[in-house]
Amino acid sequence: MNNDLQGNNFVPGNENFQQPQAQSNMWPQSQNLTNQFSNPSSRQLQSEHNNQSLSDAQVGLEAHFATPTGFGYNRELAAYYLPIIKNILDERANTDFFWKGKTTHAQDDFKLADHPEMGLMKDFVWNVSKQYLQQCGFDPNHLKGDIFLIANALEKDSFHKSHYHYDCVLSGVYYLQVPESSAPLEFEDPVFARNLNYLPIVDHNNPYTWKTTFLYPDTGYYTVFPNWHRHAVLPNDSMDSRIAISWNIS
């Protein structure tokens, strides 16, 4: 693992995955950067002043407008789809889109979502997406069920440059095969205005200073996020293929 990425990520050990459905692969405290103290009566600051100077202060922090990222595990479905996707990539791969990689993307005569084997996968995407919207407080019935699927196999040194998805509501990734040293998924700070000011950082482990965060995948792990959340896949270090299905849903 690249030590330069330490701090704004969470790399789980095997002991963390006794109940994988409840464990995010993101740096764990990043899930808690929500407006948990929005009710003034719940703000826990110590008593005022206590004979201190009138100009003394005690600053609390709260986060507003968090970007929700959904996650979970389904290893059984990943095991079911891995040989299917390998066969499809062997037969229908576009090898020009990625450096040293394969994808079903950018082919006018082939859409993975229309493949007869993809019915279960579309049901899965539908279920994940509706649960995500419901937990975020949005109407899950807003989804129309138009699903776009892409199978990707990244070889050693393959990468996917920074991008976001358009013409959809949600995007997601489902990891079917994640060898040791597989590349993480990098998320970028979606608030562009924060990049307009420069402040020197004294605590790189403080999540309020981060411009990016990294999700280290695991076989059977999936993530779902807003389509506008810009992300990238860093150069892959695994000796075997890192295989995933990406999706968009509108």
Mind explaining what this structure looks like?
Helices cover 14% and strands 21% of the residues. A 6-stranded antiparallel beta sheet has the order 1-8-5-10-3-2. The chain has helices spanning 75-92, 119-135; strands at 70-73, 101-103, 147-154, 160-163, 170-177, 185-188, 212-215, 221-226, 231-233, 242-249. The radius of gyration is 21 Å and the shape is globular. It contains 2 helices and 10 strands. The chain has a single domain, classed as Jelly Rolls (Sandwich). The model is unreliable at 1-7, 10-22 and 27-38 (pLDDT under 50). With 250 residues, it is of the alpha+beta class.
What's this, in brief?
The chain has helices at residues 75-92, 119-135, and strands spanning 70-73, 101-103, 147-154, 160-163, 170-177, 185-188, 212-215, 221-226, 231-233, 242-249. The chain has 250 residues and is of the alpha+beta class.
Features:
250 residues, alpha+beta, Jelly Rolls, 6-stranded antiparallel β-sheet, 4-stranded antiparallel β-sheet, 14% helix, globular
Shape: globular
- Give a quick account of the main beta sheet: strands, pairing sense, barrel closure: 6 strands, antiparallel
- Give the domain tally: 1
Sequence of strands across the biggest β-sheet: 1-8-5-10-3-2
Low-confidence stretches: 1-7, 10-22, 27-38
Count of distinct strands: 10
Share in helix: 10-25%
Overall SS class = alpha+beta
Query: Under CATH, the topology is which?
Result: Jelly Rolls
The topology string of helices and strands comes to EHEHEEEEEEEE
Span between termini: 35 Å
Helix count, DSSP H or I runs of 4 or more residues = 2
Q: What is the CATH homology-level superfamily?
A: q2cbj1_9rhob like domain
The CATH architecture designation is: Sandwich
**The CATH top-level class label:** Mainly Beta
Name the beta content range.
15-25%
Q: Over all CA atoms, what is the radius of gyration? A: 21 Å
